[in-house]
Amino acid sequence: MFGARRSGSGVREDHGRSGRKSAENGVADIFQEIDEELRQDRAAKLWNRYGKYVIVAALVVVLAVGSYKYWVAQDLAARAAESAAYQSAIQLAEEGDVVGAINSLGSLAEDANSGYAVLARLRQAGLAAGRGDNEVAVRAYDIVAGDGSVSEDLRALARLRSVALRIGTGDPGAISSTLERLAMAGSPWRLMSVELQGAIALRTGDMVQARKAFITLADDAETPRAMRARAAEMLKALPTQ
Question: Are residues 183 and 241 in the same domain?
Answer without folding.
Answer: yes
